DNA sequence: TATGAATGAGTCTTCATTCAT
DNA sequence: AATGAATGAAGACTCATTCAT
C-alpha cells in the first residue's frame, strides 16, 4: 500500500462499513436526530423508531446512549485532523517541495476540509454542539490537536516565518487567526447559511487571499 | 441626557435590576447551569435548588422552562447588536470624523465587544449553544442582524471600499471575513481557552492588523 | 310574618345576599366552573381569576377548596326539600283541602321543582356530580330526605292509598317511581337536552298523567 | 353461528380477554378507582400501585390517562345499546311475534339491562359521572343512541301506538318517560341504594306495570 | 441477535394552601 | 380585608436501561 493509498483510506474510510445493517440504521438515525435536536433532546426511543429497530437493539450494540454518541463523534474528531496525520501529506510539503509556498498549503487544507465539511454537515454540527458539554470529547479533541495537528502546524509556521512569508506573531496567534478564518468560513457556508447562493470557488480564493494578506509581513 | 449617556446606558443597562430578588436568584442559577450543562440537560429542580427557591417559584415567574431560557437569552441577542443600534456611535463615525479611518472603527467595535464578552461569558455560551436548537432564537437573531447590524455595516463597507481602503469583495464576503475573525477571537479567548495566558492588548492589535491587511487592496 | 311569607322566603332566600361582594364573586365563579368542569378539575387559581380576586382571598373566606364546595352545595340540598319543609305547604294539602286530590299535589310539586330547576341549573349539575364523591354530601342529603321529605311523602302516599287513588305498592316503590319520573324529567329537560325545543306545559301535563296512570289502581 | 349466538356474544364479549395480564390489572384497578373517586381525582400513580405495576407501564399501554378512561368507557357505551343492535332481537319482535305485546318487549329490555347493570355497576358509575365532562363521550353516546337505539325504539313506539296500546304522545315523550323510568330504577337499585333489601322480581314487575299503565290509552 | 414489555427515577408543571405586607 | 409571592407535594408523563423470550 502506497502512502497515497493510506492517505486516501484515512480520508475516505467509512467506519460504518464494518457495522451490521441494524447498527448502520441506528447510527444513521442517531446522526440525523442528534444534529437536528441535539443529543440531550433526542430520546433513544425516537432513534429506535427512526432506525426501524427495537429499543433494546440500540443497547445491545451500545451500552449507553452516551456510548452511541461517542461512537459517532470520536472518529469525526480523528478525521478532523486527518490531513495532518497522513505521513504522505507532511512529507510532500517539505520533501517534494510541492507545497513550497504558503498559498499552496493553505489551499490544500482549505479545499480538503471544505470537501470534508460538505460531506459531513450533520456530523460536524454534532461535534460543534456536543464538544461543549462532554469533557471526554474535549479531551479527545485536545489530544488529537496536540499530537497530530499542532506539531506539524508549528513546523509550517516556523518554516514560513523563517522564509519571511508570514508575520512574526507567536505561533498560537497565527494558528488562531488561520483556523478561526477557516472554520468561520466552513461554519458560515455549511451550517449558518447553507441555503444561501454561494460561489464556492471565489469564496475559497478570497478566504485564502484574506489569510495570506492578513499574515504577510 | 447626552447621546453618550444613552449609548452607555444601552451598553450597561442591567435587565436584572428590575427583577425581584428571588427572580434574580433564579435567573442567576439558570444562567450558570444552562451554560455549564446546556438547556436540555438542566432540570428545573436543579435550578431551583441552586437558586435556593422552591421549584414552583420558578414557574410563578416563568410560565415554562423555555420562557426562562428566552427571558435570559433574548436581551443578550439584542445587546449583541448594541454598538450598531446606538445612534451616537453611527453618527460619530461619519459626522464627527472621529472614526475616520477603518482601523479606528474596527478597534472601537472589537474592544467594545471584547469588554462585553468578558463580562458575559456564560450568557454568550448559552446563546452559542442554544441558538442552534431554538428557531425562535434564530429568528430573533436574524431580525436584529438584518435590522440593526447589516445596514450600518453595509454603509461602512461601501464607504471604505469607495475610499479604496478595503478590497472590492461582495459586502457579504467582507462581512463574513470580519465577523468570523472577531467572533473567532472572542470565542477562542473566552470560551475555548479562557485559562490560557493571554496578552489581550497585543492580541487585539494583531487581530485588527490581520483584518486590515487581509482586506486591504 | 305569615306562613306564606315564610314559605316564599324559604324558596327565594338568596344565600348570597349576606356575602361580601368579593365573596359573591368567588361563589359565582366557583358555581360556574364547578358545573362546567367539575370540582376536582377546577383549580382555585382559575376561580380566583374568573372572580377577579387574589388567590389568597378565597382562602380568607373558605378555609379549604372543599369548604367552598360545601358552602355552595349544602344550601342547595336543603332547598331541594323546601316544598316539604314549608309548614304552610303541608297544612294546605290536608287542612285546607286545596290539594285534595293527588293530581293537584303532584302538579304543585312538579311545577315548583321545575321552576327551581330552571333557575338553578348549574347548582343542580354540581349537586348531581359531586354527591357521588363526597360522603358528607351524601350524609347531608340522606338526612334532609329522611327528616323532611320522607315523613310527609309517606303521609301523602298512605293517604292516597287509603283513598284508593294509588296502587298498594310499598311506600318506597311509589316514592321511587314518582321521584324517578320527576327527576328524570327535570334532568332531561335542563341538563341533558336544555337546547331542545320543549313544550314545557304539555310535557308537565304528560308527566303528571304518566305518574297518575302509572300508579292508579 | 345462529343469530342467538351472535346476540349472546355481543352481550357477553369481554373486551378484557384480549388484553395482556398487566393491561388487565391496570384496567381493573382503573375501573375500581375511577368509580370510587372519579376520573379527575384518581392519580395514575394510585392506579399503578393498586394494579401492582410500575407507573410507566400504564403509559406504555395507554398514551394518556384520558386514553385509559376512553378505553374503559367507550365499549360500555356501545354495550348500553347492545339489545337494540342485535339483529335477532329486532327480528324477533316483529317477525316471529315473540314480543308481540308491549309488555313482553319492556320486560325483555328491562330484565336484560337489569342483568347488565348488575354485572357492571362500577363501569356504569364511571359512565354516568364522566359523560358530563368529556365531550368525546357525549358525542359517542349520542351517535350510538341516534344510530342504534332511536330508530328501533321509534318503530316500536309507532307500532304500538297504531295498535292503540300506548298513548299518542310524541315519540320523544314516550321515549323519555320509559327510559327515565328504567334508568331511574337501575340507578336507584344499583347505585344509590345497592345495599337496601330489594325484591328484584317484584320491583321489576311493578316498574313494568307502572310504565304500561302510565302510557296506556 | 433482536425484541419490546416493564421499570422507576426523573421531567416539567400545577395545585391548594400559607403568610408577610 | 385583601393581596399575591412563595411553597413543596403531587400530578401526568418520559426516559434510558434491563431482561425474559
From TrEMBL, chains A, B, C, D:
Pfam families: TetR_N. The keyword Ligase does not apply. Coiled coil: none annotated. The chain crosses the membrane at residues 68-86. Keywords: DNA-binding, Membrane, Transmembrane, Transmembrane helix. Residues 43-62 bind DNA. Residues 20-80 form the HTH tetR-type domain. Signal peptide: none annotated. InterPro entries: Homeodomain-like_sf (IPR009057), HTH-type_TetR-like_transc_reg (IPR050109), HTH_TetR (IPR001647), Tet_transcr_reg_TetR-rel_C_sf (IPR036271). This is TetR family transcriptional regulator. It comes from Pontibacillus chungwhensis. The lineage of its organism: Bacteria, Bacillati, Bacillota, Bacilli, Bacillales.
Amino acid at each position: 500500500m502506497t502512502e497515497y493509498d493510506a492517505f486516501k483510506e484515512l480520508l475516505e474510510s467509512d467506519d460504518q462499513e464494518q457495522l451490521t445493517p441494524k447498527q448502520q440504521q441506528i447510527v444513521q438515525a442517531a446522526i440525523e436526530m442528534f444534529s437536528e435536536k441535539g443529543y440531550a433532546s433526542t430520546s433513544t426511543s425516537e432513534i429506535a423508531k427512526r432506525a426501524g429497530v427495537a429499543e433494546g437493539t440500540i443497547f445491545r450494540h451500545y451500552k449507553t446512549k452516551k456510548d452511541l454518541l461517542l461512537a459517532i463523534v470520536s472518529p469525526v474528531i480523528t478525521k478532523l485532523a486527518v490531513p495532518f496525520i497522513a505521513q504522505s501529506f507532511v512529507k510532500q510539503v517539505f520533501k517534494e517541495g510541492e507545497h513550497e509556498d504558503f498559498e499552496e498549503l493553505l489551499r490544500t487544507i482549505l479545499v480538503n476540509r471544505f470537501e470534508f465539511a460538505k460531506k459531513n454537515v450533520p456530523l460536524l454540527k454534532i461535534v460543534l454542539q456536543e464538544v461543549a458539554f462532554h469533557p471526554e470529547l474535549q479531551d479527545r479533541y485536545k489530544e488529537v490537536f496536540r499530537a497530530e495537528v499542532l506539531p506539524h502546524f508549528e513546523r509550517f509556521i516556523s518554516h514560513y516565518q523563517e522564509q519571511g512569508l508570514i508575520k512574526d506573531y507567536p505561533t498560537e496567534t497565527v494558528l488562531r487567526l488561520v483556523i478561526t478564518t477557516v472554520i468561520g468560513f466552513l461554519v458560515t457556508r455549511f451550517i449558518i447559511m447553507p441555503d444561501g447562493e454561494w460561489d464556492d470557488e471565489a469564496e475559497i480564493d478570497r478566504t485564502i487571499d484574506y489569510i495570506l494578506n492578513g499574515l504577510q509581513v
